Amino acid sequence: MEALSFPRYNVAEILIHIRNKILTGADAKNLSKNDLYPNPKPEVLHMIYMRALQIVYGIRLEHFYMMPVNSEVMYPHIMEGFLPVSNLFIHLDSFLPICRVNDFEIADILCPKAKRTSRFLSGIINFIHFREACRETYMEFLWQYKSSVDKMQQLNAAHQEALMKLEKLDSVPVEEQEEFKQLSDDIQELQQLLNQEFRQKTIVLQEGNSQKKSDISEKTKRLNELKLSLTSMKEVQENLKAKIVDSPEKLKNFKEKMKDTVQKLKNSRQEVMEKYETYRDSVDCLPSCQLEVQLYQKKIQDLADNREKLTSILKESLNLEDQIESEESELKKLKTEENSFKRLMIVKKEKLATVQFKINKKHEDIKQYKRTVIEDCNKVQEKRGAVYERVITINQEIQKIRFGIQQLKDTTEREKLKSQIEVDFREYQTPHRNAVLNSSTANVQFPRMLEKIQNHYGKNQIKEECKKSPTIKHRSADQSVECQRELQAVTEKRLIFMIFELHWHYLATGICTVVGGIPQPSEGLLFLSVESIPSPRLRGNQDLWCHPSSHTMAEPLRQANDLFRLLRHECKRFRLIFVLDTMFGLAVADLHLLTFCNKKYRLQFIRIPVALEKEGRGENNLRTRRN
Question: Which of 311, 359, 374, 474 has its CA 20 to 30 A from that of 514?
Fold first, then answer.
């Protein structure tokens, strides 16, 4: 570590750098030389290290006091005091090697030394300087990059605009498409005419050239023939020289003739040569003529193109003049319209100002009206609240009064029921007791009662009710004498039961429908007819009978209480019927026990008054229900 890669600062320089670069505000002002040298204070060093980590890594102050997520500690509250030091050491252990400090230990935080702390602070200050320099260069590059990106965006926008303009220039407007089509058709027609003229002229020139070529070929043939005739004449001349006569006269004549022929031949030859030269000159001039013709054709084509351009330019100039005139006329119209619109605008502004003034006035009136309405509503609401409170108090008083009235009605009904029961028992106790106990009187009174019951209910109805009995429901009445006797006995029992039913009976009804049963006629009975879903103890429809052991209702009702407990667990539907005949009487305690069962099991009591002795009552008055 002797060859350091960063400069070592003295205490004064370190103090200046820390005040300028690391600490801010009151911490920088309060920092002194004694805090760092000769005995550095751990609290000040912790603050400097935390601030340096905050500058470099952006670590906030509360992160040093938080438990790391990846570490599991059984008792985290023990670590609360040591958490800032441990977190600071973890962050500095990863930060100081970047500053070229590789021997940092936790003792440098807990018990710092002057030389080591000055070296650590020198490395941190050097790294912060290096970071700022790199950041400046990076910011310059970033600014250049942003400017280049902006320029590129501007150039792209300009490029897009240029492309749009090129598309507009290349594309023909919809209004000028018809003119463009007409001009293109005219250009095609002119091109066709020029091509036809050029073809005709080329055909004429080719025909002339072919004629001249044929003439030249004929003349060359003639010339060749003349050459052959010359050679043949030379041969004839030689032959004649061999046949020359020695006589001078003949020789002279022959020579003169020969001279004349030679002269003629020379003249003809000269003529032929002259013609040949003229033809040769004409043939030599033919390619130059063709070149000239081609040049003339090119010039004609250029002239035609120039003519077309001139015509197009003239047309465009005419169109532009027409457009200028039309636009001038439109401009005049627009100016006149603008003047008229300005006048209308002035008028409308005046109207708008008046309307706005009216609207503002209306708004003010509406606001004032709203204020008054809200004040009235508030007053009405206050009055309504007071009235509502009065109504609530009145309703509560009415409910209390109704509840008291209902209680009074219930008590009066109970008292009436008790008094009626006592009166009825006093009226019918002795005759019915004697009618049942005394057999002679029973034998005498039974036919009369039977006739009364038959007249009251009807014989067929009694037979049908008797047939419902479980003992004879599967037999016919005409089967045998025993069956008839059994039917008569059951009929008598049923009639006796109906007689006793017409006295004071109380039926305590349960949850479901009524299932009938036939009790014994001579006893006060408690029997229960059950209709239930099959259960382990009670299967199907059963009648549970409770025979009283005494002449009171206390024992049957206790048995009924036990039965109720059983049925509430075992049956879903049941019916309990209390049959009380008037022979044995009804005590007040028994009546209280009945009302107790009513409260406990929510039963319904049905009062069935006597109807046979009092013949004036109808069938509708036989049963009146009392709760």
Answer: 474
CA distance 174 to 47: 78
Local structure of residue 22 (DSSP, 8 states): I
Q: How confident is the model over 472-517, as pLDDT tens digits?
A: 444 444 444 555 555 555 444 444 444 334 333 333 333 322 333 3
Give the tens place of pLDDT for each residue, 399-425. 999 999 999 999 998 888 878 877 766
Task: Provide the H-helix boundaries in 438-480.
Answer: 439-457, 459-467
3-state helix, strand, coil in the chain (%, to 5): 75, 5, 20
Residues facing residue 526 across a β-bridge: 546, 578
514, 485 in Cβ contact below 8 A?
no
Count other C-beta atoms under 10 Å from residue 220's C-beta. 13
For range 352-357, the mean pLDDT = 89
Beta carbons of 178 and 319 less than 8 angstroms apart? no
Spatial contact of 577 and 517, defined as CB atoms under 8 Å apart: yes
The model carries a pTM of: 0.30
Q: What are the tokens at 77?
A: 């509250």
Sign of torsion, CA 142 145 151 153?
negative
Sheet holding 604-607, edge to edge: 541-546, 525-531, 574-579, 506-509, 604-607, 624-625
Task: For residue 50, give both structure tokens.
Answer: 């935390």
